[in-house]
């Protein structure tokens, strides 16, 4: 399954809005979906004003998902919250992700997307030491996709959930930069 990528642009906001309104996305992202909210929350990264990267994933030329990728050092409060649960090494990055169309869930696309973005992260961010991903413990499809993509669970702890209906318990997953050479 070949996944291709490009940065989110303002022309993508209607698509992101539709995805965020899907029940399977809304359940875990709990994001405002007004035109203004989507522009407010995705505009700075699209314009390069925010250090995070919003990336659209494509399968056979069609958009299938979103990955938000960032260096934890750019978000010290978030890094500190994770560091209360696991060691956060220098150069650590994090991702968040979604599959937009509910008909494309449960087909391995999420796993392929995660694997692809991790490989790209090592190539595009040479200082990245690892990727740490917190996921609400109740979101089994999400953490199973992380496991299938090769991440390992390294911690369990309390973090503020995206959706206030969720318990604070999160699993933390980690992928380390592959070693090179002998």
UniProtKB/TrEMBL annotation:
Domain of life: Bacteria
Keywords: Antibiotic resistance
One Pfam family named in its UniProt record: Acetyltransf_8
N-acetyltransferase domain segment(s): 3-178
Stored PANTHER family: LYSINE N-ACYLTRANSFERASE C17G9.06C-RELATED
Protein name in the entry: N-acetyltransferase domain-containing protein
Organism ancestry: Bacteria, Bacillati, Actinomycetota, Actinomycetes, Kitasatosporales
């Amino acid at each position: 399954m070949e996944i291709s990528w490009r940065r989110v642009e303002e022309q993508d906001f209607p698509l992101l809005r539709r995805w965020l309104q899907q029940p399977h996305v809304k359940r875990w992202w709990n994001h405002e979906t007004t035109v203004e909210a989507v522009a407010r929350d995705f505009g700075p990264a699209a314009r390069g004003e925010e250090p995070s990267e919003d990336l659209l994933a494509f399968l056979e030329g069609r958009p299938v998902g979103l990955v938000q990728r960032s260096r934890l050092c750019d978000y010290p409060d978030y890094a500190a919250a994770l560091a209360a649960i696991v060691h956060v090494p220098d150069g650590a990055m994090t991702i968040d992700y979604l599959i937009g169309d509910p008909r494309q869930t449960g087909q391995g696309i999420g796993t392929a997307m995660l694997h692809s973005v991790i490989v790209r992260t090592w190539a595009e961010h040479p200082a990245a030491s690892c990727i740490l991903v917190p996921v609400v413990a109740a979101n089994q499809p999400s953490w199973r996709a992380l496991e299938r993509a090769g991440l390992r669970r390294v911690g369990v702890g309390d973090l503020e959930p995206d959706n206030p209906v969720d318990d604070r318990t999160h699993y933390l997953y980690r992928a380390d930069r592959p070693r090179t050479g002998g």
